[in-house]
Amino acid sequence: MTAPFVAHAATRAPETGTRALIADRRAGESLPAEFYVSQEFFDLDVDEIFSQSWIFVATEAEITDPGDYVTITFSTRSVIVVRDDDGRVRAHHNVCRHRGARLLTEPSGSTGTLVCTYHSWTYGMDGRLEFADDQAPGFDKSCYSLRSVHVRTIGGLVFICLADDPPADIDEVAAVVEPYLTPHRLAEAKVAKQVDIVEDGNWKLTMENNRECYHCGGHPELLNVFFPTWGYSDTDAIPSRLAPAFDRFHRATAEQTEIWDRHGLPHTRVVQLDTRATGFHIERDALDLAGESFTLDGSAACGRLLTDIPDARLGRLSMHLQPNMWLHVTSDHAVLFAVIPVSADQTLVRTTWLVHRDAVEGVDYDLDQLTGVWETTNQQDADLVALAHSGISDPAYVPGPYSTSEIQVEAFVNWYVTMLRHRLDIPAADSSSGAAGA
């Protein structure tokens, strides 16, 4: 079942030329340059995509104790995600109810109360105003709680939505993905490392780059264990140069499927990337070589496994969620990616590595071995995104066709344009185009 896309009043009315670009988008091709470089499209993306969708912002492992918080900032928006005194995850707009000052300026930390440094208005973790000095008689503190933000935890992952009425299909998505995530106990894990990279490109280029392996020749370290055949929906389309890798993939899949089935791990591919408001994809897939982890030889990087399953050869669990996240979970660790738009030409990519909460660095794992493959891959991707943005900014750029392995790029772009059309009430120029289920 898929939830319908719901239109709402746009925050700002797009210009006529912008509406035409959204209406006229051609399926199977990259977007026109304006989608990536113009300030108007960046503002629309903040207002209509990131402020109206469920977005991935943190893991529960980052806020394990009461008072632990993270802040998420994009454009002029800032949100506090905090663990309250009862252990609940809450989210509040990072805006004091007195005269609007920012409450927290650090990206993360721990605090007993939320205190505005401007005039010392003080809030509890639940957002209620606890102290406001020198107010007029009859001042009612209960009327000045922080403005709350919708928050949802799924399998140890924290999602927020700034919309008054967030997409209701999050419950359906959670019902599908939680059985895949639960065995890995991410909510009980700990952060081994977190790294932020600011890529010199539009956030959509970051997401498109993630959604295909057509460029994976530029990731020699990753390709030790990641099969370059990923993305092909039709095995007949796999080029002959990838035949040896495809044969290894089939053998590894058969062997690892037997392990998944033996331990009751769900592994069926579920793809609903552009057929619902909260588009997602999840599957369990084989890894090459030892098949255990994202290391150069595929062997586990952490001796303390995330799960209670005694078999380390579990391949990888992967999940994509529109508009801003993907993850990979192996038997020994998880690596999660959050994409946050900074400007039309800059994007923050936050990578978080989780290990078992009792794993000890230097004893159970070497941090460089644990993170090395993805840190190298992230920098390679950042360089590629910068190249793409630079070229798209050139007047010579015209949209080009997607290859047979770029089906998830098309799905992402189709989801994105469909969301803009519905949220801005823009009909497609060709009524046969657009996301199914819209």
From TrEMBL:
GO terms for molecular function: dioxygenase activity. Its cofactor is Fe cation. CDD domains: RHO_alpha_C_GbcA-like, Rieske_RO_Alpha_N. Pfam families: Rieske, Ring_hydroxyl_A. Keywords: 2Fe-2S, Dioxygenase, Iron, Iron-sulfur, Metal-binding, Oxidoreductase. It comes from the Bacteria. InterPro entries: Rieske_2Fe-2S, Rieske_2Fe-2S_sf, Ring_hydroxy_dOase_asu_C_dom, Rng_hydr_dOase-A. Residues 54-160 form the Rieske domain. This is Aromatic ring-hydroxylating dioxygenase subunit alpha.
